[in-house]
Amino acid sequence: MSMHPIEHILYFSGILIHWVIPSHPLIAMFHIFHAGIAPTAGHTGYEKMIFKNGKYIQTGDYNHYLHHKYFECNYSGGNVSFLDKLFGTFHDGSEEATQEVMKRLKNKSYL
């Protein structure tokens, strides 16, 4: 499982708006489909998809890649990365940050 069950409940809770504010079933279905499929682009391992004409689509960000590489860093993403800075889990890609994460992993005890 990639997310904790509570994270799943919170992530998909936005869909409940369709029971509060009546909407067309196709809109609700699109919302459910988008919530389930949209994260795949950011998990391809590529930063962007480049087309023949030189245009590109941004598919992910480096901080999210670092979260998957080390897991003990960059829990928040996008516009809320200040939370990682606040709680000391921000990794900027530098060697110093990597050493800090590795030290944290080494000191972590698993029961």
TrEMBL record:
Residues 2-89 form the Fatty acid hydroxylase domain. It comes from marine metagenome. Signal peptide: none annotated. One of its GO terms (biological process) is lipid biosynthetic process. One of its GO terms (molecular function) is iron ion binding. This is Fatty acid hydroxylase domain-containing protein. Pfam families: FA_hydroxylase. The lineage of its organism: unclassified sequences, metagenomes, ecological metagenomes.
